[in-house]
Amino acid sequence: MEGEIDHRSTRRDFTHGELHRQELDSNPFQQLATWLAAAKEAGTFDATAMVLATADADGHPDARYVLLKHFDEQGLCWYSDQRSQKGQELAANPHAALVFYWPENDRQVRINGPVEPLDTAAAESYFQQRPSRSRYSAAASIQSQVIASRADLEARVAELQQRYPEDNVPRNPAWGGYRLIPERFEFWQGRRDRLHDRFVYRRSDDASHAWLIERLMP
Prior knowledge:
One of its GO terms (molecular function) is pyridoxamine phosphate oxidase activity. The chain is α+β, with helices and mostly antiparallel strands. It has a single domain (21-129, 173-216), classed as Pnp Oxidase, Chain A (Roll), CATH 2.30.110.10. Helix content is 25%, strand content 31%. The protein has helices at 28-41, 85-92, 120-129, 132-140, 150-163; strands at residues 49-55, 61-67, 70-72, 75-81, 95-102, 107-117, 175-180, 184-189, 197-203, 211-216. Strands 1, 2, 3, 4, 5, 6, 7, 8, 9 and 10 form a 10-stranded antiparallel β-sheet that branches. The longest helix is centred in the N-terminal third of the chain and has 14 residues, at 28-41.
């Protein structure tokens, strides 16, 4: 490539809404549920897609999209192969950040906290809910590991389909779930002229550990 690729003039204004303190739910999990439902209603493609940012033991960062599968006040959950790069990073440094972005509503949510593995029962339950072909793909792949060709990968799937012809391929014990336990939420609403609305939820330092809400400058 020769020369600079210049996107400094690429911009749009944010016109879809505004956010006021009195509109926020006192519970950030309920606020997230409300915004997620609104994103789905607005037609956001893959509304449950979230960036998962991790770092290895030396602090080198990495990020990728994963899909939120369920959440409650214990935390936000997704599933993956624990042998993957993100799995190795979480094993070495069990803290992460999540980001949702819903352009149809000009909204973003950032969430930070420690990560813990889900138990085997949760992993097994979700694995069995997945479509048959997805189960074979997960069982055949050692995620993030080098393989010589696409044909070799498809051969691994075909071998499992032959060995387990009744759609009963077992879950590899390395395939499981994770839960991020939020310590901080930030809800961002895009506004005109870049004067955005930003609110942070964080736990108080007293014995109640109640959620405190503060406005941030954009």
